[in-house]
C-alpha cells in the first residue's frame, strides 16, 4: 500500500497479482490478515488520502473478493487498545502475511520435488566464460573447492550482487547501488487480531505492528549501510525508535525485546530520498556475458514473477524447449523440518 504514495503502480499491481497466486498455491504459508490504519488529528496521511489509497489498492487488486475496506464503527475502536487521544478514524482492509523463511524453504523444497538439485550451502568463488560460451564456475562446498560448467548463470545474491559480479570474467559494468538497512524487533506483547499500519510520530514513516507467533513483530527502518552485508544488525537507535512507536500507539504494551534482526534492501543510488527510490527488481545483462542475468532488489512477494522474467531472458541459452509446468499452478509444499 505504501508504494502507492510514490506512484509505483506497476510494482503494486504485480505484487497484488502475485499475492493472489500465493494464497491459491501456498494457503498454509500465505494468509489473509485484517490490516488497520488509525487516523489521528496529527497524522500526515489524512482520512481522504487513505480512502483514495485504499480505493486504488482495491482497483489494482482487480477488486478480488476481500478487496473491500471500511471505516470501523466508533463502538469497535476500543477493542484495539489504540491510544484514543485525537483518534479520528480506523480503516480496516485485508492484505496477506507470510513467514519469509518458511516460504523460501517451501520454494526450495518444491523445486527439488520437480527435479532441481540444490547444493547448500555453497559459496560462489569465480566464473570465466570459455570459447564455447559456457561458464567455468568455481565454488566451495563443505570446505572443498568444486567446479562445474554451465550455459546459464544467474546472480541472485542480493546485497552481495556486485561483489559476485566482480568475480565473473569478462567484467561488465554494474549499476550503482546503495544498501539500506531495515531492522525489525519482536516484542513480548501478545499478538493482536491483525496488523496495524501506523505512522511514526517523529518522521511520519509507515510502520507495521503485526502478530508473530506468540508475540508481536514491529518494523521497519531505513538506514544507509556501508559495511559487509553479513554484519548487519539493528542499531540501538533503530530498536528505541521502533519500541517508542509501539509505546506511543499502544500505551501500556509490553515492548520488552524477544529478538531483533535486520536485512539490507538493494536500492539504486540516486539523489532521491530512500522512500522515493524504485523498489522494482533490477536486471543486469550484457552481450559480453551471454546466458548471464544479475538481479537484485524487488520484493519477496514478486519472487515468482521475477523468476519467470529471468527465465525468459535465459531461455535462448537452454537446450530443452519442451513445455514444462507453469509456476502459476505449482502448489508449494511446506518443507519438512530436516530439509
Ligand atoms: C527490512 C526489509 C523488509 C522487507 N519487507 C518486505 C515485505 O514486506 N514484502 C516483500 O515482498 N519483500 C520485502 N522485502 C524484500 C525482500 O526481502 C527481498 O526482495 C528478497 O529478500 C530478495 O531476495 P534475493 O534472493 O534477491 O536476495 P537475498 O534474500 O538477499 O538473498 C541473497 C542470497 O545470496 C547468498 N549469497 C551471497 N553471496 C554468495 C556467494 N558468493 N555464493 C553463494 N551464495 C551467496 C546469501 O547468502 C543470500 O542467501 C524486505 C526487505 C528488507 C531488507
End-to-end span in angstroms?
Answer: 34 Å
Q: What bound compounds does this protein have?
A: flavin-adenine dinucleotide
Topology order in helix (H) and strand (E) letters: HEHEEHEEEEHEEEEEEHEEEH
Mean pLDDT: 92
Portion of residues in beta strands equals: 25-35%
What Rg is obtained from the alpha carbons, in whole angstroms? 22 Å
Structural class: alpha+beta
**Strand segment tally:** 16
Tertiary shape: globular
Output the number of helix runs.
6
Helix-residue proportion:
10-25%
Q: Major sheet, described briefly?
A: 9 strands, mixed
In short:
It contains six helices and 16 strands. With 339 residues, the protein is an alpha+beta fold. The relative contact order is 0.16.
Task: Considering the chains and any ligands shown, give keywords for the structure.
single chain; 339 residues; nine-stranded mixed beta sheet; four-stranded mixed beta sheet; 6 helices; 31% strand; binds flavin-adenine dinucleotide
Task: Give a description of the structure.
With 339 residues, this protein is of the alpha+beta class. The protein is built from six helices and 16 strands. The chain is globular, with a radius of gyration of 22 Å. Flavin-adenine dinucleotide (FAD) binds next to strand 4 and strand 14.
Question: Which helices and strands appear, and what pairs or packs with what?
Answer:
Blueprint: H1 9-25, E1 30-40, H2 47-60, E2 70-71, E3 87-98, H3 100-113, E4 123-129, E5 135-141, E6 144-150, E7 153-155, H4 161-165, E8 168-169, E9 177-187, E10 195-199, E11 206-212, E12 215-219, E13 223-225, H5 236-249, E14 257-268, E15 281-284, E16 292-297, H6 303-314
Bound molecules: flavin-adenine dinucleotide.
Flavin-adenine dinucleotide binds next to strand 4 and strand 14.
Amino acid at each position: 500500500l505504501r508504494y502507492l504514495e510514490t506512484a509505483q503502480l506497476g510494482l503494486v499491481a504485480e505484487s497484488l497479482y502475485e499475492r493472489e497466486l500465493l494464497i491459491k498455491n501456498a494457503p498454509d504459508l500465505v494468509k489473509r490478515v485484517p490490516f488497520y490504519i488509525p487516523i489521528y488529528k496529527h497524522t500526515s496521511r489524512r482520512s481522504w488520502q487513505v480512502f483514495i489509497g485504499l480505493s486504488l489498492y482495491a482497483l489494482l487488486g482487480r477488486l478480488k473478493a476481500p478487496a473491500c475496506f471500511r471505516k470501523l464503527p466508533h463502538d469497535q475502536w476500543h477493542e484495539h487498545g489504540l491510544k484514543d487521544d485525537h483518534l479520528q478514524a480506523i480503516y480496516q482492509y485485508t492484505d496477506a502475511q507470510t513467514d519469509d523463511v518458511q516460504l523460501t524453504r517451501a520454494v526450495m523444497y518444491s523445486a527439488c520435488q520437480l527435479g532441481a538439485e540444490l547444493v547448500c550451502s555453497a559459496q560462489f568463488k569465480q566464473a570465466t566464460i570459455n570459447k564455447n560460451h559456457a561458464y567455468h564456475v568455481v565454488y566451495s562446498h563443505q570446505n572443498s573447492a568444486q567446479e562445474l560448467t554451465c550455459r546459464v548463470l544467474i546472480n541472485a545474491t542480493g546485497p552481495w550482487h556486485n561483489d559476485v559480479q566482480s568475480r565473473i570474467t569478462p567484467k561488465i559494468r554494474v549499476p550503482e547501488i546503495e544498501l539500506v538497512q531495515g531492522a525489525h524487533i519482536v516484542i513480548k506483547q501478545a499478538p493482536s487480531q491483525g496488523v496495524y499500519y501506523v505512522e511514526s510520530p517523529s518522521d511520519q514513516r509507515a510502520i507495521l505492528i503485526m502478530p508473530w507467533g506468540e508475540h508481536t513483530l514491529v518494523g521497519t527502518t531505513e538506514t544507509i549501510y556501508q559495511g559487509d552485508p553479513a554484519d548487519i544488525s539493528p542499531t540501538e537507535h533503530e530498536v528505541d525508535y521502533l519500541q517508542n512507536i509501539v509505546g506511543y500507539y499502544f500505551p501500556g504494551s509490553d515492548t520488552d525485546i524477544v529478538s531483533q534482526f535486520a536485512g539490507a534492501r538493494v536500492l539504486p543510488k540516486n539523489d532521491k530520498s530512500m522512500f522515493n527510490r524504485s523498489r522494482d527488481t533490477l536486471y543486469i545483462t550484457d552481450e559480453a556475458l551471454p546466458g548471464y542475468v544479475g538481479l537484485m532488489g524487488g520484493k519477496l512477494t514478486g519472487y515468482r514473477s521475477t523468476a519467470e522474467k529471468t527465465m525468459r531472458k535465459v531461455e535462448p541459452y537452454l537446450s530443452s524447449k519442451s513445455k514444462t509446468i507453469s509456476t502459476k499452478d505449482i502448489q508449494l509444499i511446506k518443507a519438512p523440518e530436516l530439509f
